[in-house]
Amino acid sequence: MNQKDASRANDYVSRIIDSQILSLGRNKAMAWIIFKLGDSEHSLEVYSSFRIKDNNKILVANLDMYEPTESLSGNESFDYDAFDWDAKGANRYDEWIEDVGLASLSGLKVVDTKVNSCGDLTILLEQYIEIEVFLNHITYLCWRLLDLDLGNLFEMLGTGIGKEQ
Amino acid sequence: MNQKDVSRANEQVKRIIGSQGFYIGRAAAMAWMGFVFGDTEYALHVQCSFRIRDYSEILVTDMEMLEPTESLLSSESFDYDTFHWDVQGVNRYDEWVRALDPALLSTLKVVGARVNSYGDLTVLFEQNIAIEVFANSAADECWRLFERGSLASHLVMLGSGIEEQD
User: Are B17 and B112 in contact (CB under 8 A)?
Assistant: First the structure.
C-alpha cells in the first residue's frame, strides 16, 4: 500500500479513538467488536488473523476459535473428528469472550489506532491491551470498519483499500 | 514471554542469518521452509499465520493454501463444495511455490532474523523479501525451528511462549 493510502486508512480508523468497547463476539470465523462514542457506534469486522494481547501475553487469537474448551477436550468421550468448532460456546475463543473478554474489555477506551503499509491494524486500548489484525489474505477482505448509524464503511483487502464510503 | 526467553529465542533464530539457499513447501496446512548453510540445514515449520512479502506487496500467505488456483476456479465444472484444498497443486500456495525460480531460491540470503516478545518471527532476505510469522494462538504450537539431522532440541514457539523440551 502506498503512503497516501496508508494515510487514508489511518485517518479513517482514527475516528474510533476515544470510543469505548461496547461488545465483542464472532459470527462463524469473523470476529466483531463494537465501539461506542457518544451516540455513534462503529463495528470492526475481522476476516483475517488477529489477536488480543496485553503487555505480557496473547489473551486470545483467531485460531482459538477452532480449539475445544478445556472442559470439552478433557471429557473422556470427546472426539476431535466430531468436534463442531462453530457451536456456540464450544471453542476457546467463545469461552474466553464469555468468561473474561466481555467483562475485562467492555468499557475500555481506545487510546490509539494504527494501520501500517501492509494494511495490518493495531488498536491500542487502555490498560495496555491491544487488538492486532494481521493481513493473511491476498485478494479477499481482511477487515472493515462500519459506522453503524451512518452506514459509512472502510474495507482493507490484502491488496489494499477496498470500498470506502 | 519474558526477556530471558525472548533472548533465548533470538539466539536460536540468529543461526539462520547468513544462510544462502531456501526451500519451501507444505504438509497439510503446515508450511515447511528450509535454510541452507553449507552442509547444515535449518527447518522452519509454521502452523500459524504467516505471509511472505516484498517491499511493495504480499506474495503468498497461509490462507492461500485454502484457495483454488485461478485456472481451477475459472473452470466451468469447478464446485467450491467439492474442492479439496489439500490435493497437491490445486491451491494458490502450491501454485506459487511451484512457480518459484530454483536459481533465485538457491541464492537467497538471510540478512536478518528476529523474534519479538509475543513469539512473532520475522526473517529478512536480501532484496527486501520477508517472511512474517504471526502468533495467532493463545496456547498452541505456532512454529518451530530445528537443525535437520541433529538430535539437538527444537525451538518450539507456542502462543504462550517457548515450549520446554526435555
Answer: yes
Q: What is the pLDDT of residues A150-164, one digit of tens each?
A: 888 999 998 899 988
Here the contacts of A149-153 (C-beta below 8 Å, separation 24 or greater) are: A149/A39, A149/A40, A149/A41, A150/A40
pTM value is 0.95
The whole-angstrom distance between B96's CA and the closest CA on chain A is: 12
Question: How many interchain CB pairs under 8 A, A with B?
Answer: 77
Distances in Å between the Cα of A110 and the Cα atoms of A43, A49, A113, B144 are: 13, 20, 8, 34
Distance, in angstroms, between A19 CA and closest chain B CA? 25
CA distance linking residue B164 with residue B140, whole number of Å: 13
pLDDT at residue B33, as a whole number: 97
User: Which residue among A49, A53, A63 places its CB closest to the CB of B118?
Assistant: A53
Helix (H, G, I), strand (E, B) or coil at A7: helix
User: Which positions in chain B touch A51 (Cβ < 8 Å)?
Assistant: 118, 134-136, 138
Is B22 touching A (CB cutoff 8 A)? no
- For the stretch B27-56, pLDDT in tens is 999 999 999 988 999 999 999 999 999 988
Q: What is the mean pLDDT of residues B66-86?
A: 92
ipTM for the predicted complex comes to: 0.93
